[in-house]
Amino acid sequence: MGDRSSRPCTSPQRTLTRTERRVIEVRVLRWWGPVWIAGLVGLNPSTGSWSATASTG
User: Fold this and answer.
1) By the 8 A CB rule, do 22 and 57 touch?
2) Is the pTM of this model over 0.70?
3) Residue 46 three-state SS
């Protein structure tokens, strides 16, 4: 029996691709932190659902 990935088969709550791109763009161009970026893209900074995206790159 081999190891299995812990990654889910689907991610219904995943952040939209366009939102991910916007977060990365703002992060690179302005060096803003998560609270500022969340306000700009319309996400709640306390959810943490997009924090991995903010640290991408």
Assistant:
1) no
2) no
3) coil
